[in-house]
Write a structure and sequence with these properties.
By secondary structure, the chain is of the alpha/beta class. Helix content is 42%, strand content 20%. It has one domain: P-loop containing nucleotide triphosphate hydrolases (Rossmann fold). The chain contains seven helices and nine strands; from the N terminus they run βαβββαββαβαβααβα.
Length: 191
Amino acid sequence: MIKPVLFVLSAPSGAGKSTLIRRVRTTLPDLFYSISCTTRPPRKGEVEAVDYYFVDKTRFIEMIGNDGFLEWKEVHGAMYGTPVEPIRKALQDGRRCIMDIDVNGAMDVFRKIDEAIGIFIMPPDLRVLEQRLRLRCSDTEESIKIRLQNAKRELEFAALFHYKIVNADLLRATTELIEVIRRESEPTGNI
Ligand code: ADP
Ligand code: 5GP
């Protein structure tokens, strides 16, 4: 038995959240991954309903009006939101869940769900972050600039998370993340 804990992962764009989550899910296949809605266009290789639900702005606003999101934010010029129902159901089914959202969205989740566990992924430094964004070849120059500008402000939120993991060595960071998830979702013993 595991505890149905909600893990909230945040980091500056390019720090390696998606890569880490992909690797963790192969080790912990029961972990429920919250697929967000976004109005940004898909990147090369991204798959509808696997990476995101890609929706237009009208549909996104309709979902806000229907209270369809646990939280939503405008990030780097597009809208992103966490559909509430899949998370609610997964937690009710006793599953541990993980979501990859920006720092402002994470603050909303912490306010709404006391028991949520925040994990902040740190890049080794801003120079490496820039290299990773460029090597990913998925964003325009304009988008990379916005992401780097926002990174400095996002790093100031790190102290508000329960755990910080530096993603320098990928294997080591993956192992640390798996350890945190396992430790926090271990059942507490009955007295
Ligand atoms: P995020 O989801 O946080 O925006 P990604 O997971 O897309 O970031 O990672 C950004 C880029 O950095 C990708 O090209 C990925 O392969 C690479 N990357 C991730 N972690 C590491 C690491 N520890 N060492 C080197 N490259 C990495
Ligand atoms: P990307 O465009 O690189 O996939 O994501 C950009 C940023 O949006 C990242 O910081 C990512 O964590 C965040 N994000 C993705 N989904 C959501 C969501 O549902 N809500 C919020 N608030 N941020 C999200």
